[in-house]
Design goal:
- Residues 1-8 have low confidence and may be disordered.
- This protein has 9 helices and no strands.
- By secondary structure, the protein is mostly helical.
Length: 196
């Protein structure tokens, strides 16, 4: 997972190119090298590593009855990816819509994932910080949702939600419409009234 920032930056460019494409140009790009560009970005390899890490944690907990401490560099980027996936694998309650919401609130929101900085949606409210830069933006949450999507495709009957739900979730993250994923902390989210 050490080479993740470079891969994430390259993958972010690939995702941006994909999202700005029309359906007809997407079909043309797919046949003319989009998939090879996606492969070169390292996105799929990174997803594989994150999924493998989450599965490894789940195996340690479930079969070896081990206690596992997960703490990646700063604790709010890679850590919730791994712990969230492990909990999805271990506990079917988190595979329900309500359970998944609780998992996101616990692992991503309460533990301080910096949505504004990582998603590049808005500048932080705290005036002592600066607006998101390319160095701070990273599709960490998008990678987590992509990993969840991979699991829902492989085990569709194990989940109460599907790709449409995950797509709506990502829309809410990037639109900041309701304030759930607004800012970089619970304090910043509480300072701005939510739109209803």
């Amino acid at each position: 997972l050490g080479a993740a920032p470079a891969a994430a930056s390259s993958a972010s460019s690939a995702v941006a190119a994909l999202s700005s494409s029309s359906a007809s140009s997407l079909a043309q790009q797919t046949s003319s090298g989009f998939l090879s560009e996606l492969d070169k970005s390292g996105w799929l390899e990174h997803l594989r590593l994150v999924l493998r890490g989450g599965a490894h944690i789940a195996t340690l907990v479930s079969t070896q009855r081990a206690s596992v401490l997960v703490h990646c560099s700063d604790g709010w980027d890679r850590t919730p990816q791994l712990t969230g996936l492990a909990q999805l694998l271990l506990d079917p309650a988190f595979r329900s819509i309500d359970g998944f919401r609780r998992l996101l609130a616990k692992e991503w929101l309460s533990f301080g994932h910096q949505f504004a900085l990582r998603c590049g949606t808005i500048a932080p409210l705290d005036k002592s910080h600066h607006a998101p830069s390319g160095d701070e933006m990273s599709p960490v949450f998008l990678q987590f949702v992509d990993c969840v999507w991979q699991l829902t495709n492989q085990f569709p009957t194990a989940f109460e939600f599907n790709s449409a739900y995950l797509a709506e979730l990502l829309y809410q993250v990037y639109s900041c419409k309701y304030g759930t994923f607004f800012g970089n902390s619970e304090r910043q989210r509480a300072a701005v009234p939510a739109t209803r």
